[in-house]
């Protein structure tokens, strides 16, 4: 296949990260390059790219909606980038890149439901606020220490000038 994939580690990552990238490698051999990362992701919609190399129009793209325990539903989109809006449940999409009738690459995406994204966003905000609070405390400490040192230097200079 063509393209690249990220090899993720799901345990043993530094700090409190749930996943970390071990390496990025070129996909060769099997056409299934695994899971991709969307180009853009918002609360309402997601833009997902197929695997391709320039020129983009030399390939044919087949988008499928993967349904558990059923045959995949082929979508009418034949472009390299597809936009999918979130639904009430998670959906998995797969894009197959074809050249001369042969599948040369395949990538999958999970588009999470709106409710799952709101939950993830609220978790990020909660985690982010605790980090911001710690950062703010350190900044305030440094600022206060700097002000005290500056005032001390000014008083020392005034004292030296008066006694000179």
Automatic annotation (TrEMBL):
Keyword ATP-binding attached: no
Annotated transmembrane regions: 138-162
Entry annotated with the keyword Ion transport: no
Keywords associated with the record: Membrane, Transmembrane, Transmembrane helix
Residues of the signal peptide: none
Any one GO biological process: acrosome assembly
A GO cellular component annotation in the UniProt record: acrosomal membrane
Superkingdom to which the source organism belongs: Eukaryota
PANTHER family cross-referenced by the UniProt entry: SPERM ACROSOME MEMBRANE-ASSOCIATED PROTEIN 1 (PTHR47223)
Record's protein name: SACA1 protein
Source organism of this protein record: Chordeiles acutipennis
């Amino acid at each position: 296949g063509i393209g690249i994939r990220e090899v993720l580690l799901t345990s043993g990552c530094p700090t409190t990260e749930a996943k970390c990238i071990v390496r990025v490698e070129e996909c060769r051999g099997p056409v299934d390059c695994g899971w991709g990362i969307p180009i853009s992701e918002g609360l309402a919609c997601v833009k997902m790219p197929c695997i391709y190399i320039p020129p983009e129009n030399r390939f044919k793209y087949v988008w499928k909606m993967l349904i558990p325990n059923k045959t995949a539903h082929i979508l009418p989109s034949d472009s390299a980038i597809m936009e999918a809006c979130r639904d009430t449940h998670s959906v998995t999409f797969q894009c197959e890149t074809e050249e001369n009738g042969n599948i040369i690459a395949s990538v999958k995406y999970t588009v999470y439901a709106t409710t799952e994204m709101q939950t993830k966003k609220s978790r990020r905000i909660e985690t982010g606020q605790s980090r911001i609070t710690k950062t703010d405390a350190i900044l305030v400490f440094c600022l206060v220490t700097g002000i005290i040192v500056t005032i001390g230097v000014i008083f020392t200079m005034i004292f030296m000038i008066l006694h000179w």
